[in-house]
Amino acid sequence: MKRSVLMSVALGLSVAAAQAQDKLIVDGSTTVGPIAKAFAEVIMRQNPGVNITVSESGSGNGAKALLNGTCDVACLSRNLKDSERKAMDEKGVKPVVHVVAFDALPVIVHPSNPVKGLTIDQVRDIYTGKITNWKEVGGADQRIVVISRDTNSGTYETFKDLVLGKDNKIIASAEYTGSNGGMRQRVQMTRGAIGYAGLGFVDRTIKALEINGVMPSAETVSAKQYPLSRELYLFTNGEPAADTLAGKFLSMSRTEKGREIIEEIGFVPVPDAK
Amino acid sequence: MLLSPAARARRRLAEMAGRGVLFAVTSVAALSVLAIIFFIARDALPFFTQVGMREFFLSTEWYPSHQPPQFGAAAIFVGTFLVTAAAVVLAVPIGLFAALCMSDILPFGLRQLLKPVIEMLAAIPSVVYGFFALTVVAPLVQDAGRWLPGDIQIDSGVNALTASLILGVMALPTIVSVSEDALQAAGRELREGSYALGATRAETLFKVVIPASISGLFSAVLLGIMRVMGETMVVWMASGNAAQIPKPWYNLLLPVRTLTATIAGDMGEADQMTGSTHYHVLFAMGLCLLLMSFACNLAGEWVVARQRKKLRGG
Lengths: 274, 314
Hints:
Strand order of the largest sheet of chain A: 2-1-3-12-4-13
Strand order of the largest sheet of chain B: 1-2
Structural class of chain A: alpha/beta
Structural class of chain B: mainly alpha
CATH superfamily of chain B: MetI-like
Shape of chain B: globular
Low-confidence stretches of chain B: none
Low-confidence stretches of chain A: 5-19
Largest sheet of chain B: 2 strands, antiparallel
Largest interface: A-B, 26 and 35 residues
Distance between the termini of chain B: 45 Å
Number of strands of chain A: 13
Mean pLDDT of chain A: 86
Number of domains of chain B: 1
Strand content of chain B: under 5%
Largest sheet of chain A: 6 strands, mixed
CATH topology of chain B: MetI-like fold
Number of helices of chain A: 10
Order of helices and strands of chain B: HHEEHHHHHHHHHH
CATH architecture of chain B: Orthogonal Bundle
Number of helices of chain B: 12
CATH class of chain B: Mainly Alpha
Oligomer: heterodimer
Radius of gyration of chain A: 22 Å
Helix content of chain B: over 70%
Number of strands of chain B: 2
Distance between the termini of chain A: 62 Å
C-alpha cells in the first residue's frame, strides 16, 4: 500500500517534470503572435506530445508575463522599456533578446498618383492635416484622402510609433478601415488616397512610395535602409539551451521553414548571419 | 362527461405544468432584455462618472487611444443620425409604395412572386452587403460626381451616402412586409364597402385603406428605422469611419462614423486590461443606442394606442 503510494507519487513527479519539459508558454504582441502561432504549429507537428500555447495580450502584457514568470517566451513588437528592464533586474529575471523578423510599413497611394516619394515629415503632416492637397508635395491638384487602419491594429501602432509620434493626432476627417485588405481596396479605387499596410499587401494595384528616398522592399528592410521598419522580438529569461523546446522555438526563425512562414505572414525574415 | 377525481387532478396538473413552461419561456425573453440593459448600464455608468456627459455629448474630439484620451462623441452621434435619416428618407417612400402596390394594385399572381423576392433581401448577410457596398457601390458613388451638375468632386467613395444607400435597401424588406401586412389587415369588407359607395380605387386606397392601417404603417417605418440604426457591419465597411461632423452638416458625400461601427471597431483594443475608460465609453454608446431604440418603440406604442382609440370612435 505504502509502496504503491510512493510509486504513484514518484510517477506523478516524473510526469510533471516531463510536462515542464514539453510545455512552452508564449505571450505578448499581437503583431508577432501570428508568427509565434505558426512556429508553434510546426514544432508541435514535428514533436508529438509537446504543447505550446501562444497568447496575444499585447507587448506590454508580454513583458509583464516574462517578469512574473507566467510565460517562457515573450513576443514584443518593440524593445523593452527601461522601467521594464529595471523591474526585471530587481526580480532577477535576465531578459535575452532574439530578433525574430522585420516589420515594414509601406506608404501606399493610387497607381495613377505621380508623386514618387515623401519624407517622414511630409507623411506626418498629411496625416495630421497640415498638408491637404497633393500639389503641396509635387503631385496633381487633388485633395488628399487620408486613410488609416483602425486603432485596434498593430499596423496602426507601428505607424503611430514610427511616423506620428506620441503627441500628434490623426486629422478627424481621416477614414478608418478594418483590415490590410480593406486598406488596399480603398487605396486602389480612390484617386487621392494615401494609406499604409503591411509589406505583404503591396502589389501592382497600388503604388508604394519612397520614404526619405528609399523604396520599401525585403532588401531595403533587412539592410535597415527603409526608415519605416522595425524589429520584432522574442524575449526569454536567460539564454535557453538549443535542445530545449524554447531553444527550438527561438531558432525556428533561422530555419528554411521559419523564413518561409515569416514571408508568408507578410514580414521580412532576418538575413542569414554571414 | 364526468371525470374521476384522479383524472381531473391529472388534467389540472398538466394544465399547470403547461402554463408554467410557457411562462418560463416567455420570461427568458423578457429577462434577457432586462439582463442586457442591466449589464450595459453597469459598464456604461463608470464612464459617465469618470469623464462626464459634457465631453461625451458636446465635444467632437474622438481620440480614445491617444495619451491623454479624449472621448468627444458628438460627431459620432451626428454621423449615426445622418446615415439613419438618409437611409430612412430613401427607404420609407419606396417601401410604402411597394407595399401599397403589392396589396392593392398588382395582380395576385405577381404579388405572390414579388413578396418572397423582396423578403429575400432580408436573408442576405450584412457582411455581404458591406462587401457589395465597398466594391460596387463605392466606386459608382465616387464616379457619380462627374455626371452631377456643378463642380462636385467626390473624393472618397465610402461616405454617408454609400452607407445610407445600402442601409435603405436593407430596411426595405422590413418596411415592405410589415406595411403590406397592415394594409392586408384592413380587410376586404372595408374596401368593398368603399367601392359600394361609389369610390374609385384611388379614393378607396388613400381615404379608406391607408387611414385604417396607418398605425401598422407607422410601426413598419419605426421597425425600419431601428433596423437601420442598429446595423453595424455595413457602416463599418462603407461609411469611412471618420469621426467628423461634415461641413455643411447635411453633406452626405463625406465619410462619417456611427455608434455601432465605433463599438465594433474599438471593442478589441478596449479590454479592461489596456484602458478601462475606453472600454466603458463603448458601453455608454451601447446604452445610448439602446435608449434610442427604446424611445422609438415607445413612440410607436403611443401612436398605435392613439390610433386604436380614434378608430373605436373615442
